[in-house]
């Protein structure tokens, strides 16, 4: 496998071994089973190139309704969490500028994810940690429907925090490491 294929496989492993297996996102299993998740590795590693690729990915989703969602993976260029957060802000601004606000929303994941106001070593941060910096492009209409049909969407983050706290950092560090291919 080439580098992009490895990156995609490691991200698929994360979705399967973490997100779906432990029900971090109760909406993910259905899309995995349907094969409706697109995994796209960003070309380049500078902000301008990555933002253009992100915009292209939104256009891809516009043209491919059978693809429910896209995980836009950035293996290089945004290893620093705060640089990544700057990119997230620019990406959200770009979606608004390109009139995608209300069409798509972005969720973000990073190997060093840290919720605002939380210590870096708080286990709950692992609910948003991934093998690579990743933007999850979500169709707003689908998310609204999923939320409407979920019995208690407000309980999801609380359940995830309790689960992460119970399992602890070593469990999640090992789990995340197990997603990576042996090199």
Automatic annotation (TrEMBL):
It holds the Pfam family DUF1415. It comes from the Bacteria. This is DUF1415 domain-containing protein. It comes from Psychromonas marina.
């Amino acid at each position: 496998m080439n580098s992009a294929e490895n990156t995609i496989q490691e991200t698929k492993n994360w979705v399967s071994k973490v997100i779906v297996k432990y029900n971090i996102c109760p909406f993910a299993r259905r899309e995995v089973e349907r094969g409706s998740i697109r995994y796209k590795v960003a070309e380049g590693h500078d902000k301008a190139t990555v933002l253009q690729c992100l915009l292209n990915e939104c256009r891809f989703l516009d043209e491919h309704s059978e693809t429910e969602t896209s995980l836009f993976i950035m293996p290089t260029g945004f290893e620093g969490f705060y640089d990544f957060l700057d990119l997230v802000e620019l990406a959200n601004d770009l979606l608004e500028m390109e009139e995608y606000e209300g069409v798509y929303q972005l969720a973000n994941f990073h190997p060093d994810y840290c919720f605002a106001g939380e210590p870096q070593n708080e286990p709950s941060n692992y609910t948003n940690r991934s093998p690579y910096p990743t933007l999850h492009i979500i169709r707003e209409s689908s998310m609204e429907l999923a939320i409407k049909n979920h019995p208690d969407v407000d309980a999801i983050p609380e359940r995830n925090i309790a689960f992460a706290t119970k399992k602890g950092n070593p469990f999640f560090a090992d789990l995340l490491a197990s997603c990576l291919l042996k090199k």
